[in-house]
Amino acid sequence: AGEELEALATRLKKLCGAGGAVKDGTIEVQGDHRDRLV
Length: 38
What we know:
Pfam families: SUI1
Oligomer: single chain
Low-confidence stretches: none
GO molecular function: translation initiation factor activity
Structural class: alpha+beta
Protein name: SUI1 domain-containing protein
Largest sheet: 2 strands, antiparallel
Order of helices and strands: HEEH
Mean pLDDT: 95
Number of strands: 2
Helix content: 40-55%
Radius of gyration: 9 Å
Number of domains: 1
Shape: globular
């Protein structure tokens, strides 16, 4: 599941054109991208 979460995080970061990280099972994307991701 960790690899899938990392892969999803990578796709979301590319979509937003932003950095981010996976911490404790949560994807964090830098900046305010809620409208784009929800």
